[in-house]
Amino acid sequence: MLFKNKIKFGRIFKKRRILLRYVEYTLIRPVDKRSFGDVYLMQKIKNQKLIKITNLTTILKLIRKKEIISRAELAKIAKLSPTTISDLTQLLLNEGVVIEIGEGTSKGGRKPILLSLNDRCGFFIGVDIAVNFLKIGIFDIELNVIQMTEKEFIKTEYTNDELSREIIDLIQELLEKSRINKKKIFGIGISVEGIIDYNKKVILSSTVYPHLRNVNLFDLIKKEFDVPVYIENGSQLAALAEKQLIKRYSSYHSVVFFEVNTGIGEGIILDDKIYNGAFGGAGEIGHITVDVNGPVCNCGNRGCLEVMANKKAIINQVQKILKFNGNTVLKQIEKQDITLKDIGDAAAEGDQVAIDIIRREAKYLAAGVLNIINTFNPEAIIIGGDIIDLGDNLIGEIKKIISNTAFAHYLNRIELVYSKLQHDVKLKGAGLLAVNMFFENPFIIFDFD
What we know:
Elements: H1 2-28, H2 36-66, E1 69-70, H3 71-78, H4 82-95, E2 98-103, E3 113-117, E4 123-129, E5 133-140, E6 145-152, H5 160-178, E7 185-192, E8 195-197, E9 202-205, H6 218-225, E10 229-233, H7 234-245, E11 255-260, E12 264-270, E13 273-274, H8 305-309, H9 311-324, H10 340-348, H11 352-376, E14 380-384, H12 392-403, E15 415-418, H13 425-440
Parallel strand pairs: 4-7, 7-10, 11-14, 14-15
Antiparallel strand pairs: 1-3, 2-3, 4-5, 5-6, 8-9, 11-12, 12-13
């Protein structure tokens, strides 16, 4: 009796849902001339397609995560029927996204056929727009480098169209060298310095290249290659790359990348996701004030961390010292521009002037590190950019300064290290962004109707 009542009430609720939809499409939406039956059928087809897309995305992500997996394991982890798994993996095999790589170990019965990603199913472009150069790489789906190139900017200022054209020309040059058809490109990730409007896909402002404002790199590049184009702040991409590509950090949920180049910024990963803030401006740590009487920064403020401790500030400090102090190996370097590596090498040899320069830098950067610790309390703070060329003395001095503060206990819990990916970290981050977005929505490229 109870079972019959359940069936009865189930039918009533089903009829009620259909009645509500009928009311919606006949009374609330009188403009729609289609019949209720047509609309209901279209909605049902739409829902079925959405379920199919969701399941395919889940399967593809699992294959990526596990690297090698059988259909039975996919069904178990994804909680989908063997028939559904079989149908969906066959679609991926037909599109060449996945390949069968042999037999696995049997646990009774037939040996399972193992599946893996086809690393040559498509390719991804990473673009790193630095201050003085453009770096571009082609990656496969596993983020292996296929081709990479770097080109110095011949001008100090570029218009939107000129910069887009430079990027397009360099990508086409790389594609020709690697003999890859542009139809095999599945996505392009672009690393830029500055604040981004993610809805409009434009660089709103940048202290690194202040002449670029409201720059749209999206439209021309997307039109040329007809693939998804993604733009992200370079420090954020560096944090993403370190977190995802370096095994040691893969289990961490919060990582901050502290970048010191011509500009100073931070990339923030919180709860395994890039944190951009409400309006895309999170991570501008270069513009905290460390000296209220300091020089004016490009942002208009005085004594910002960026203007006091960036690459240019260090070199300027060296040049001032060398005018009055000849008792240093740096004086003997017979070239116009002393590099951070020159300073780091001199400090490693015990040169006191070089050591003092590094100590001055450490004082400012320690302020930045403490700011990160107290704001985000991450599991790891990774220092990157050209600053790593100063060597181990710098990070040792930063730790020494922090050890004399009330926050010294964090040094035993938070990893404070140099970047493992070093000078290619933002380029790899840009490529990784394009790859990640493909796995979030592979149907931008493939039509799985």
